[in-house]
Amino acid sequence: MKKARVKTSDMALTILERVAFSDIALSQTEIAEAVGIVKSAAHKHLNTLEETGWIMRDAGTGRYHLGPKAWIVGQHAIAIRDLAETARERMRVKRNETGLAVVLSLVKKSGLSVIFALHGTHAIEIGVRQGSELALHASAQGQIVLAFGSSALAEEVLLGELPALTPKTLTVPEQLNARIAEIRAAGYACAPEETLLGVNVVAAPIFDHNGSLIATVALVGSIQHLTSPPESAHVDTILELARSISQTYGYQRRSHLLLEN
Predict the structure, then answer these.
(1) pLDDT exceeds cutoff 50 at 255
(2) Helix or strand or coil: residue 255?
(3) How far is CA 139 from CA 21, 52, 118, 176, 202, in A?
(4) Could you tell me if 73 and 17 are in contact, meaning their C-beta atoms sit under 8 angstroms apart?
(5) Cα–Cα distance measured from residue 92 to residue 31, given in angstroms and rounded to the nearest whole number
(6) Phi-psi region for residue 211, left (φ > 0), alpha (ψ -120 to 50) or beta?
(7) Cβ neighbours around 85 below 10 Å, total
(8) Are residues 170 and 176 in contact, defined by beta-carbon separation less than 8 angstroms?
(9) Is the confidence at residue 239, as pLDDT, over 60?
(10) SS3 118
(11) 195 phi and psi angles, rounded to 5 deg
(12) What is the per-residue pLDDT for 76?
């Protein structure tokens, strides 16, 4: 769901991006001109970013470059890349076995983003673009987040607007809540034609060593090739794939459905 954006936060992030992706260190004047604000306003944003460690000002030239906080966050970004690298070949094997697209999505504080995807091998290609933000209520991957992720986020989604992406999207909170309970019991989610007509998705959760949900992995295909309800072979495939990736991250809770199926 969309939320109101804070203009000052937007501007601070815009300035940070300008500094980060510039080939050279930038002056206050250059930054102000690049983002379209007056120098005095740029000065306030730059001071805040410098005080919090996101950028640094060269004492000799007065120009700005990235600071230590940006470096630390960058190291965390490497973990995202590592997740995709860990899953890549496992996903490729399952794609080749099923002919279906396979999609890996990263769980964030407020949502879900696709970080790696392999297109299917059937004549009609169905896939998901890397970087896509997935609707939590209307996608199998999103429903996995509601079932196994933050209870506060699930409550927020259930209390908020549930827009219909297709006539089959769950838009009634009670129905979505019932679906969440089913997913917790089954260990996987299936959302036939709820995001796009003619397309079905089967998804499963990926956990880390603490048992925390960190990602989802899904099979995506036409309703012809990925039926509703899904074939047991497709369910077994997605559970096995999710289990394999989870175990790489140290997940060993034998009592969980994901590891028992």
Answers:
(1) no
(2) coil
(3) 34, 37, 18, 11, 9
(4) no
(5) 44
(6) left
(7) 10
(8) yes
(9) yes
(10) strand
(11) -100, -40
(12) 56
Amino acid 145 reads V
Contact indicator for 129, 114 with CB cutoff of 8 Å: yes
**Single-letter residue type at 73:** V
44-55 burial, b if ≥16 CB within 10 A, otherwise e?
ebbeebeeeebb
Angle at 55 between CA 54 and CA 59, to 5 degrees: 150
Please give the Cα distance from 241 to 74 (Å, whole number): 28
Q: Which residues contact 166 (CB under 8 A, 6 or more apart)?
A: 138, 193, 194, 195, 196, 197
Phi and psi torsions of 244, nearest 5°? -60, -45
Query: DSSP string spanning 125-188?
Result: -----TTPBPPTTTSHHHHHHHHHS-HHHHHHHHHS----SSTTS--SHHHHHHHHHHHHHHSS
List C-alpha distances in Å: 56 to 17, 24, 68, 261. Answer: 14, 13, 8, 52
Side-chain half-sphere exposure of 18, counting CA atoms within 13 A: 23
> pTM of this prediction?
0.68
Q: What is the dihedral of CA 133, 138, 141, 144, to 10 degrees?
A: 130
d(CA 127, CA 170) in angstroms, rounded, equals 22
> Position of tokens 């949900």?
213
Average pLDDT over residues 230-236: 97
